[in-house]
Design a protein that fits this description.
The complex is a heterodimer of chains A (about 290) and B (about 350). Chain A is an all-alpha fold and about 290 residues long. In chain A, about 75% of the residues lie in helices and about 0% in strands. The radius of gyration of chain A is 25 Å and the shape is globular. Chain B has about 350 residues and is mainly α. Chain B is about 70% helix and about 5% strand. Chain B contains 14 helices and 2 strands. In chain B, strands 1-2 form a two-stranded antiparallel sheet. In chain B, β1 and β2 form a beta hairpin. Classes of the chains: A mainly alpha (about 290), B mainly alpha (about 350). Chain A: This is Carbohydrate ABC transporter permease. Chain A: It comes from Streptomyces violaceoruber.
Chain lengths: ~290, ~350
Amino acid sequence: MSGKTALSRARFEERFFGVARWIVIAFLAVITLLPFYYMVLLSLKPIDALLLDPGSLWISAKDFTLSTYRDVLRSTDDGGQGFLRFLLNSALVSLGTVVLTLVAAVPGAYAVSRLKFFGHRQVSALFLAVYLFPATLLAVPLFVIFAKIGLSSSLVGLAIVYVAQTVPVSIYMLKNYLVTIPASIEEAAALDGCSRLQTVRKVILPLALPSLMATGLYVFMIAWNEFLFALLFLAADPGQWTVSLGLAQLSNGIEVPKTVLMAGSVVLTIPVVLLFFAAERLLTEGLTSGADKS
Amino acid sequence: MPTAPAGAPQRRDTSRRSTDPSGDRSPAPGRRPLTASRRANRAGLAFVSPTFLVVLVVVVLPIAWTVLLAFQKARLVDIQGMGLFGNWSLDNFSQVFDSAGFWSSLGTTLLYTAGATLGSVVLGLVAALALRKPFRGRGLLRAAMLLPYVAPVVAVAFVWEVALSPQYGVVNDWGRRLFGWDDPIAFLSTRQYEVDLLGLHFDIPLALLTVIVFECWRYFPFAFLFILARLQAVPDTLEEAALVDGATPTQRFRHVLLPQLMPVIALLCVLRFIMTFNKFDDVYLLTGGGAGTDVAAVRVYDFLTARYDVGAAAAQALVLALSLMILLGFYFKFFGNKVQEEA
């Protein structure tokens, strides 16, 4: 009797979760895709169409317009919002951050993953602990320092701040990858007469290329999406705004239609999403490497 | 953290010394050759020092300065002429603790953080379980599900703002059509929303709830990624054995999968808790800190930019960081082993 009830319970559960699984999958697809679909949709219609029928989830052929994008991208001299300029600023800051962060993080990650040196446990703990400090705590002194040395509205200053935000994560990601490269490869290089520096440059870095790219991509994402420090440091100088800041300021502007705002959102989102889809597998593996050990 | 096995560096270095006398640190004539461990020590310090320097300059020193500033009366205009060790006082802290909003803001922050952490990890777990077995289009869906995490916060915050708007938002429009809402609901500016359910009267902190839901939505992909990665490393034999023993799906989850996932879930909870506790941009962009969503990080920003009161902002940030550390201290005291296993 009890065996029979257990069996039917098992069968019931199998069936229940079989159905529930698909419901969950559909739900997840809807909540992740719908907001982005909505964003693109609104950016392609005139504001009147939105106000007339806010619930509509499609767009009729006669409403379709690209004028919102023209408005957002055109330079301010031509009466637009100058987002091309902001895109360029963002690209400069993000790429600069990626380069600086990798230069700063690679040697440290290598040392922590490979070499036993005095205090290596403490240093590795420090790198992780730094990752836990709040951005707001850093914001106060950096705000003051930058105001003092006149870096407060420069893209270089912003890139330096972003390095502070990204170095700890990068070390963590790189380290997780480097420990998977067998030490015997380095021994072989040493036997062939490579010094430690040569080994790193000629053997380890090429092998770690996927991880370098994944880390670089993640850093780029963080720098591209960052908002607080851009707001703190650049708000006074519209020529230096990043896209995130430009969009936030646009929303404060009076009489900017929401459809134009959505076009700005699309413009801000597209580069980072394209980059992400191009290297999705790389990024997910880079982020989670080390998560699957028991 | 796995490091190289204890024996490895020595072995590597001795082999090099014997075959490569002109190696990177060949000993000066007359001096005793360095031992292998000392060489590794030197190389390690040399490699770590550039990184250490960067972290020191851009992270550690600023934080140390925050601590100093918190004990000084410092407005942005005074700072030019101020020495590093000016007049010490506890004024900033008494100001922080006495100000009307502080304790309620801390409470709000805690509620927000706990809700968002729990929500995003649970949703991530459910998502990982649902996407565990392969099906057509799984890779595509997995990539799409990371969109909220990858997309810039400013863009997604505006989409939510527009979608939830009482005037032109799609949510209110559909709410009226499908559920017959009489009045549009201002999700992001309603402090208390009155609900009558089965004759009972509730007040719901609606704006805060909306912000929490946003945070869950934005960060569940992060939890999903880590849990899925761990899930796929669970050996099949474990579950097959349970299946043979006649365990039902819930039993297999409870007794086989969950113990395997616990370390990564614990780590995720800690990470998300820390991140959310200090979260600024999401709340600032959605509500500006109004309608009962005055989380502590937004208050720091207000001190800094509205009043240019650097000392008070520093004190507030420091109190925030300390409260976080105390909370984490409790956590590690009770659940520490699991997390350390993972980290």
